[in-house]
Design a protein that fits this description.
Structural class: mainly alpha
Shape: globular
Number of strands: 0
Mean pLDDT: 77
Order of helices and strands: HHHHHHHHHHHHHHHHHHH
Strand content: under 5%
Low-confidence stretches: 7-11, 225-235
Number of helices: 19
Distance between the termini: 81 Å
Radius of gyration: 22 Å
Length: about 375
């Protein structure tokens, strides 16, 4: 009996042991965050160094010579890597190298956001393969694509007007030189070492691979998000408020610095009945604004004030469009979006037409 009691006591962690384990986990996540940030800065440094030598490839092979081409290029590029942030960072390094104009950079970043939403639809498709409800699983991905697409296309027009008029040209970050000088001391030797063994153009590809790893590590260092039914009960009234959901989407994405994380959690939450489709529309709109935080950091690291202005212009344009929709005609917008999602998910033919459209359109723009 004494042996059984001793075994039972050892099997149950004491509060002190639990605190120790929690502290270790937190330290591990903090270390992972530092590693991911180090890799992010290293990736931007490498991509900046190799971007100039890729100019012939981008201009001649991919025909990225105007804003329409760059929009399609960013859109398809984000499909390929299933993430928008690395593509947006690539657009900034191309701009810094003189490969893209300021307007083409703006449209390529917009394209990266259009393609990034595909990840949510892909996760919904996996849920369908696992035998989950087809309509519920696909609706979040379709909503994410639709809200992001409509908002960004409208913001594209607003942004081009603001860019052409130079409305934000004086809003440039000029204090990034100190940060850049500090990072140069650390990362320039690494870049020079890589150049001893690799051609300069390959540093862009190496940096792009590293930045993908850095985002993956950053996602892993985030705390696990769980939502109990009691918590949902207390928050149910707030969930029905569009502005609350808008701020929630913006806040979660700002903290996680990953729109794929903040939007992907909508699929399982929808499956469990925690949120309904009509409630997440403003959430997605808010997430589409603060997702540019990591791109702003990339612009600062490049020490290019004009690049910072381009990213700021993206955020301001989407914010203007989102505020107009939420303030003036949100109910109409919500109704038409839900009709679109219901129509697309109604049968395989409509879904196939939708999927074909979002693939063909960027291809046409790429060769426009």
């Amino acid at each position: 009996m004494d042996e059984l009691a001793t075994t039972h006591e050892n099997s149950v962690s004491s509060p002190q042991d639990q605190k120790y384990q929690t502290a270790v986990r937190r330290l591990g996540k903090a270390a992972l965050f530092i590693v991911s940030l180090f890799l992010f800065i290293l990736a931007i440094t490498l991509m900046k160094e190799g971007a100039r030598d890729l100019a012939p490839l981008v201009r001649d092979t991919f025909h990225v010579t105007n804003p329409a081409n760059s929009l399609g290029f960013g859109w398809l590029f984000a499909y390929l890597v299933m993430s928008g942030s690395p593509v947006a960072a690539a657009a900034l390094t191309f701009f810094d190298a003189g490969v893209l104009s300021q307007m083409a950079t703006f449209t390529m970043i917009t394209g990266s956001r259009l393609g990034a939403s595909f990840i949510v639809l892909f996760i919904g498709f996996i849920y369908v393969l696992r035998g989950r409800n087809r309509s519920t699983s696909l609706s979040m991905g379709l909503l994410s694509l639709s809200v992001t697409g409509i908002t960004n296309i409208l913001a594209l027009g607003v942004g081009l007007v603001l860019l052409h008029g130079g409305w934000l040209s004086h809003w440039q970050l000029t204090s990034g030189a100190l940060l850049t000088s500090a990072t140069d001391i650390i990362f320039d030797p690494i870049t020079n070492f890589a150049l001893r063994f690799l051609p300069r153009w390959s540093l862009f590809l190496l940096g792009f691979g590293i930045i993908m790893v850095s985002f993956n590590l950053f996602d892993r260092c985030l705390p696990q998000m769980s939502l109990k039914e009691s918590q949902v009960g207390r928050m149910s009234r707030l969930i029905y408020q569009p502005w609350v959901m808008f701020l929630l989407g913006a806040g979660i994405t700002l903290i996680s610095m990953s729109v794929s994380v903040s939007l992907s959690i909508l699929v399982p939450l929808s499956q469990r009945g925690f949120v309904r489709r009509e409630n997440v529309i403003p959430y997605i709109m808010g997430a589409n604004i603060t997702t540019f935080v990591d791109t702003l950091l990339a612009a600062v690291l490049l020490n290019n004030p004009a690049a910072f202005t381009v990213v700021l212009l993206e955020m301001v344009s989407i914010t203007i469009v989102s505020f107009i929709i939420l303030t003036l005609f949100y109910r109409f917008y919500q109704e038409k979006l839900l009709d679109l999602v219901n129509g697309v998910s109604e049968n395989n033919r409509n879904l196939a037409i939708f999927m074909g459209t979002i693939l063909v359109v960027p291809l046409i723009m790429l060769f426009f």
